[in-house]
């Protein structure tokens, strides 16, 4: 029967049917398991057991009472409060940081890894060649090289730090090893990749990532400006010290040390270069911070109060992760950076501390002359010396690898050359940066976490080099202090402001300012210490201090308020962190209105009269429901463009004068030649530009009002807390209803602002409050993803008091870790 | 009809309660195996296993969404350029239906191949 043609046909059809069916089924399974271009693997993503649906659960719904963790020496208890803030109680440091690593990874694994992937120039592995330029930049400026140097230093000189950093890494890795597909963070599923093992090296990378975020330099822009304007105009608009200098360290400070001498070359000759490409990405305007401490003599309770609010890019998952760390010998609480050990800004049972960015030019550029195209030798002190090559391989998702060879000199890596942004074969710019040097910033924070007094605080800071920070301090024993800490190059006046000759040893850094000569103060007479990214000192400080981006407004507002206030309470300090007074507007607007010379009685019903009256009656506060800040901001921006845009040249980056110098020019030299528009035959003055910009304001507002419901400050400013992948818009939070802005104590702009607010009173019973714009969880589906955001936007706080081991109240859940 | 209902319920129970223990690939193998044991008609197997799988996924997604009250489905819909989050439930059902349906179809197709060989053996 088998050889019957009919049966053979039937049989072959059944085989064929099965074959077709299994091919379709297998193909379907494969197609739904892989990402096609930007479409994620839909089978995995939509599978309710393993895909995105699983991320609808919040952490308390997934809580485990007990977790086995290898290598623990004792039992560790983690108590989560109602805000999902973990309080880790361990018997020793190694267990403490092992569990910190595990717990942080539980809530922030994707963020930790993504940030270190960015620092190491590896985003192309996740998103493809769209990130190649970004990745090349990260490697060319030497972030992985710097992290490797830090690792070598730790390996050779810091075994105790290394031991703890490795314990943290072990905690992270044990979490990764236990991770199920269901619990794999959502971003991995959407972008279709998996976490790598964590390592001590990645913790170092994270600290370099922070250095990169906070450090800028404008040497190449100043090089172009010098060529265009000359040194005299440069000195006028970019002075080393502003007229209203209100520095971090009080001006009355007596510098009781003998400074190290600095030799300035007899003749200065800079390379005759015009820079025709964009410099490194600079810290965004608004990146900065406030911190201060008031002495007990100025507070209602008699105890010092410390406040800190670092202004960073506002991201989700939040840059900060709050927790308490306890062993039998110390208890510390505050904000940590996921990926780094300990608390970065916080307090313990004895002291409180906080950080702001100590802006200073610690990055310099050298023009290098190579012997030939091979670039194996370069000129130094008129002799050729060897360069070294570092071959960087970029793995690109869906494409072949990209190789970039980076030449290293003794100054540092050649960032810009013929293969990267350079427009000439002989263009080779080397970067010298303190972040490339050996250091152990991690130790500073480990020691601060345990510090008991001012001496411990100073000892801890002696390990800190980059990014330079202003460390504020207050202790239960009544001291307040401030120290500007970092590794600052010894420079002669103007050294490092422009591109320098890499051949001439006279342009080398002369060494470093000794740490004990860094600006510092303890219990100053005025009863407070403060910093807001302004100039660290007044001109009496015996070393050259320069940066292009010092703050001119927040510092003056802060110091004037701290001078005025007496019997200060915690609530006063919270209100000061949320202070919306716009000092720049208060100084600039009367000048602008006066120059406008508008007579509102001529046509009191006109839209011009309406805006003029609003602005004239403004109280200079920037609350979210006010519309005057919008009018001022638009008008100022239009005026600023009219004054300075004429200096801009295609492809030649420059730095425009800041708003403080611009306001001075408007107020004191309204007939200055700098207001003249070169393209017209008429000779314009400030009043002409003020009038033209007011007309532009009216035109802009007409369009705005047609397209938007209102022009309140919150609507115009559109404060957005953005997911680390900007395309994931629904994981971001836009239109956050809050006031403030750049240059205002509440420095909440569109994308930058107070990333963490903390106020601590160091009395017999320590009282602490904290908040940040986001949440403890990194999972967009969790109720803890953005649970702090509304409280933060309203200027409110949550209780951050230290928690004891036996405290029973306010517990969300507890987890016991044991070997 | 009873076999159809039995097939559907068995697939639902497997996928809903055991689906969390292994990847959807393994679920597909189980579903194909049950189809091989229960049903003979290809069309019936396709729809019974497809519906069982799809309803299990849809039910699980609904239970999670209702029990957590999370905003995540809406956020995911926005991320995927879908205006209505309910389409995500439809999508979850459809993907489950196709995975289950083709797995079941493959199971019964395999059974068909072996069944014919058996008939031939007795006739010789």
Topology summary:
The complex is a heterodimer of chains A (819) and B (124).
Chain A: H1 5-31, H2 42-46, E1 66-68, E2 76-81, E3 86-89, H3 93-119, H4 124-127, H5 132-140, H6 143-157, H7 159-178, H8 186-191, H9 200-214, H10 219-237, E4 288-294, E5 305-313, E6 315-316, E7 321-327, E8 330-336, E9 345-348, E10 351-357, E11 363-367, E12 377-380, E13 383-386, E14 388-394, E15 402-408, E16 414-416, E17 429-433, H11 441-450, H12 454-461, E18 469-475, E19 480-485, E20 500-501, E21 520-522, E22 528-531, H13 554-564, H14 570-577, H15 583-596, H16 607-616, H17 628-644, H18 659-668, H19 686-707, H20 713-717, E23 719-723, E24 733-736, E25 752-754, E26 757-761, E27 767-771, H21 789-793, E28 798-799, E29 811-818
Parallel strand pairs in A: 1-29, 3-7, 6-23, 11-20
Antiparallel strand pairs in A: 2-3, 2-29, 4-5, 4-22, 5-25, 5-26, 7-8, 8-9, 9-10, 10-18, 11-17, 12-13, 14-15, 16-17, 18-19, 19-21, 23-24, 26-27, 27-28
Helix pairs in contact in A: 3-7, 3-9, 6-9, 11-12, 15-18, 15-19, 17-19
Chain B: H1 2-18, H2 24-38, H3 42-68, H4 72-79, H5 86-123
Helix pairs in contact in B: 1-2, 1-3, 2-5, 3-5
Structure, described:
The complex is a heterodimer of chains A (819) and B (124). By secondary structure, chain A is an alpha+beta fold. Chain A has a domain at 583-620 and 627-711. Helix content of chain A is 33%, strand content 18%. Chain A is built from 21 helices and 29 strands. An eleven-stranded mixed sheet of chain A has the order 1-29-2-3-7-8-9-10-18-19-21, with helices on one face. The mean pLDDT of chain A is 93. Chain B has one domain (2-123). The two termini of chain B are 34 Å apart. The mean pLDDT of chain B is 88. The A-B interface holds A 1-2, 7, 10-11, 14-15, 17-18, 21-22, 24-25, 28-29, 32-33, 42-44, 46-50, 52-58, 61, 181-182, 190, 728-731, 780-783 and B 19-20, 23-25, 28, 32, 42, 57, 60-61, 64-65, 68, 70-76, 78-79, 88, 91-92, 95-96, 98-99, 102-103, 105-106, 109-110, 112-113, 116, 120, 123-124.
């Amino acid at each position: 029967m088998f050889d019957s043609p009919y049966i053979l046909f039937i049989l072959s059809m059944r085989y064929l049917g099965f074959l077709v069916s299994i091919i379709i089924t297998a193909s379907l399974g494969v197609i739904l398991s892989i990402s096609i271009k930007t479409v994620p693997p839909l089978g995995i993503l939509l599978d309710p057991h393993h895909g995105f649906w699983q991320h609808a659960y919040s952490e308390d719904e997934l809580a485990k009472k007990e977790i086995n963790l290898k290598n623990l020496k004792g039992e560790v208890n983690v108590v989560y409060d109602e805000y999902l803030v973990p309080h880790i109680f361990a018997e020793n440091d190694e267990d403490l940081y092992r569990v910190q690593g595990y717990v942080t990874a539980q809530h922030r694994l994707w963020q930790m890894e993504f940030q270190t992937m960015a620092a190491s120039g590896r985003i192309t592995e996740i998103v493809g060649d769209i990130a190649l330029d970004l990745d090349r930049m990260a490697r060319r400026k030497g972030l992985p090289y710097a992290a490797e140097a830090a690792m070598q230093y730790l390996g050779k000189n810091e075994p105790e730090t290394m031991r703890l950093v490795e314990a943290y890494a072990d905690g992270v890795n044990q979490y990764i090893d236990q991770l199920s597909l269901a619990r794999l963070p959502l971003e991995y599923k959407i972008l279709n990749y998996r976490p790598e093992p964590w390592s001590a090296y990645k913790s170092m990378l994270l600290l370099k990532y922070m250095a990169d975020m906070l450090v800028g330099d404008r040497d190449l822009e100043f090089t172009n400006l010098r060529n265009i304007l000359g040194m005299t105009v440069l000195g006028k608009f970019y002075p080393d010290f502003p007229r209203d200098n209100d520095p971090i360290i009080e001006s009355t400070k007596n510098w009781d040390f003998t400074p190290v001498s600095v030799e300035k070359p007899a003749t200065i000759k800079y390379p005759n270069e015009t820079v025709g490409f964009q410099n490194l990405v600079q810290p965004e305007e608004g990146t900065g911070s406030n911190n201060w401490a008031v002495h007990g003599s100025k507070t209602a309770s008699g105890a010092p109060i410390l406040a800190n609010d670092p202004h960073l890019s506002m991201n989700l998952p939040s840059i900060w992760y709050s927790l308490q760390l306890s062993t039998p010998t110390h208890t510390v609480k505050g904000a940590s950076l996921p990926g780094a050990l300990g608390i970065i800004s916080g307090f313990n049972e004895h002291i409180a501390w906080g950080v702001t960015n100590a802006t200073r030019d610690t990055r310099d550029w050298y023009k290098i002359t190579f012997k030939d195209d091979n670039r194996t030798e370069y000129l130094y002190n008129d002799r050729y010396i060897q360069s070294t090559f570092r071959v960087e391989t970029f793995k690109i998702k869906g494409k072949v690898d990209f190789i970039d060879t980076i030449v290293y000199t003794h100054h540092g890596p050649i960032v810009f050359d013929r293969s990267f942004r350079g427009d000439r074969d002989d263009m080779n710019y080397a970067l010298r940066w303190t972040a490339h040097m050996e250091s152990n910033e991690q130790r500073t924070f480990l020691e601060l976490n345990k510090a008991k007094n001012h001496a411990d605080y100073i000892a801890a800071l002696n390990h800190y080099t980059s990014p330079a920070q202003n460390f504020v301090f207050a202790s239960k024993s009544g001291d307040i202090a401030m120290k500007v800490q970092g590794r600052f190059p010894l420079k002669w006046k103007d050294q490092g402001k422009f591109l320098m000759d890499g051949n001439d040893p006279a342009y080398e850094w002369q060494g470093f300012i000794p740490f004990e000569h860094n600006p510092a103060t303890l219990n100053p007479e005025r009863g407070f210490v403060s910093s807001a990214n302004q100039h660290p000192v007044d001109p009496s400080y015996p070393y050259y201090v320069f940066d292009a981006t010092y703050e001119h407004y927040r510092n003056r507002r802060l110091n004037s308020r701290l001078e005025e206030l007496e019997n200060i309470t915690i609530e006063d300090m919270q209100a000061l962190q949320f202070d919306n007074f716009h000092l720049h507007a208060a100084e600039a607007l009367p000048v602008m209105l006066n120059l406008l010379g508008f007579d509102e009685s001529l046509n009191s019903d006109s839209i011009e009269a309406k805006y003029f009256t609003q602005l004239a009656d403004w109280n200079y506060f920037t609350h979210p429901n006010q519309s005057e800040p919008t009018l001022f901001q638009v008008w100022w921006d239009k005026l600023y463009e009219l004054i300075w845009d004429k200096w801009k040249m295609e492809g030649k980056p420059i730095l425009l004068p800041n708003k403080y110098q611009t306001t001075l020019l408007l107020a004191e030299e309204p007939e200055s030649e700098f207001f003249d528009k070169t393209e017209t035959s008429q000779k314009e003055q400030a009043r002409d530009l003020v009038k033209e910009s007011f007309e532009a304001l009216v035109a802009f507002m007409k369009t705005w009002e047609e397209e938007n419901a209102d022009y309140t400050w919150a609507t115009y400013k559109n404060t957005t807390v953005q997911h680390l992948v900007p395309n994931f818009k629904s994981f971001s939070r836009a239109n956050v209803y809050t006031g403030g802005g750049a240059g205002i104590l509440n420095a909440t702009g569109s994308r930058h602002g107070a990333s963490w607010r903390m106020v601590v009173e160091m009395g017999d019973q320590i009282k602490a409050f904290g908040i940040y714009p986001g949440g403890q969880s990194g999972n967009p589906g969790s109720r803890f993803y953005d649970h702090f955001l509304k409280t933060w936007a309203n200027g409110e706080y949550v209780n951050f008091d230290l928690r004891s081991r036996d405290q029973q109240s306010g517990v969300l859940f507890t987890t016991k870790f044991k070997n | 009809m009873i076999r159809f209902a039995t097939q559907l319920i068995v697939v639902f129970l497997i996928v809903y309660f055991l689906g969390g223990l292994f990847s959807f690939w393994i679920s597909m193998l189980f579903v194909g195996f049950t189809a091989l044991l229960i049903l003979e008609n290809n069309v019936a197997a396709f729809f019974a296993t497809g519906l069982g799988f799809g309803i299990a996924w849809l039910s699980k997604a609904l239970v999670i969404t209702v029990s957590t009250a999370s905003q995540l489905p809406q956020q995911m819909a926005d991320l995927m350029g879908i205006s209505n989050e309910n389409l995500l439930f439809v999508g979850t059902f459809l993907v489950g239906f196709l995975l289950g349906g083709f797995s079941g179809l493959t199971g019964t197709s395999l059974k068909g191949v072996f069944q014919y060989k058996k008939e031939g053996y007795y006739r010789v």
